[in-house]
Amino acid sequence: MSTIIAILIALVVVVVLWALFALRVVQQYERGVVFRFGRVREHVRGPGLAVIVPVVERLKKANLQITTLGVPAQDCITRDNVSVRVDAVVYFQVVDPVKALVNVRDYEYAISQVSQTSMRAVIGRADLDELLSNREKLNAELTSIIDAPTEKPWGVKVMRVEVKDVSLPDAMKRSMSRQAEAERERRARVIAADGEYQASKKLAQAAAAMAADPAALQLRLLQTVVEVAAEKNSTLVMPFPVELLRFLDHAVTPADRARAAAAVASEAVTSAEMVTPATTAPVSNGHPAAEPAPSGGRSPGPQG
Questions:
Q1: Which residues contact 189 (CB under 8 A, 6 or more apart)?
Q2: Which of 57, 87, 118, 266 shows the greatest Cβ crowding within 10 Å of its Cβ?
Q3: What is the DSSP letter of 21?
Q4: Nearest to 79 by CA among 144, 115, 119, 131
């Protein structure tokens, strides 16, 4: 009886050991590649429970999920000789588990190296403006370049490549800031000039409408006075019609203007004659010289 129990226990131990070495679980997002004596089997194990022969066969799993790989920042020089620092991210997926496990040792590291070299080459063929404004084109070009040596030989499909950040030198940042400021100022001036032009057209139309009806101009003047008075300030506005000035200007004839100009000129001459320069009496032998006699009189003689 004890012998039978011992045999049963031995069988159970053997079954457990066989299950530990022969049974493998493949997840839904994985595929299993079986190697028998080092040679790959054509049949790829799908998700579920996979059974292999212990010691004879070995199962390796390949993940079919989309993997995200960050590309380290690379120092690149653009076509217009600007030094930039660019980093990116690569999205790839294993489409052939056999090639991914057999043809390349570490496909993630291999894709990382291909991405770095390809990114330097693509950035070197692009201008700085294209790198900053047209990233979709660069991303598509990087995707096609990186996918060419990886899909068929390695069984890895590059789904997408995105340029994450572009670091510029400080001097280039300052230059671009000045350029952007000048562009904004130019646009502001153009918009202001356009607004003035449109306002002038509207004012011309309003002036034509008011000229057709003088009462409209008077109403506008009264409205302006009401708006100023509503501010509760101490300013007193006295409207003076411009038409009155024009009437007075037309009322003065050219002859009146000539006479007024002649009167002003004669008055200026009279004022100049009345102003005489000061004279200084000459000195002879220490005595002042005799003053000249006034016109129309005789000089006074010596008195006895």
A1: none
A2: 118
A3: H
A4: 131
- Say how far apart CA 303 and CA 79 lie, in whole Å: 119
Q: Minimal CA–CA distance to 165: which of 278, 111, 280, 86?
A: 86
Task: Report the distance separating Cα 144 and Cα 134, nearest Å.
Answer: 16
Q: CA 223, CA 23: separation in Å to the nearest integer?
A: 97
Residue 257 in this model has a pLDDT that exceeds 90: no
Where does 148-169 have alpha helices with state H? 151-154
Q: Which two tokens stand for residue 271?
A: 């004022």
- pLDDT tens-digit profile of 190-219? 999 999 999 998 888 888 887 787 777 777
- Segment 51-57 long-range contacts (CB within 8 Å, at least 24 positions apart): 51/22, 51/23, 51/24, 52/22, 52/24, 53/22, 54/18, 54/21, 54/22, 55/21
Tokens, residue 204: 């011309």
- What number is the average pLDDT over the span 226-230? 71
| Residue 196 main-chain phi, psi, to 5 deg | -65, -40
Q: Which amino acid is at 302?
A: P
The answer to whether residues 59 and 51 touch, using CB atoms and an 8 Å cutoff, is: no
93, 97, 91: which is closest to 47 by C-alpha?
97
What does the alpha-carbon distance between residue 234 and residue 223 come to, in Å, rounded to a whole number? 18
Helix H or strand E segment including 74: strand 67-77
Q: Would you say 162 and 139 are in contact if contact means Cβ atoms under 8 Å apart?
A: yes
The pLDDT tens digits for 178-192 are 888 899 999 999 999
pLDDT tens per residue across span 17-39: 777 788 888 899 999 999 988 88
pLDDT tens-digit series, residues 115-127? 999 999 999 888 8
* Helix axes 170-212 and 214-229, enclosed angle (nearest 10): 130
pTM of the model: 0.57
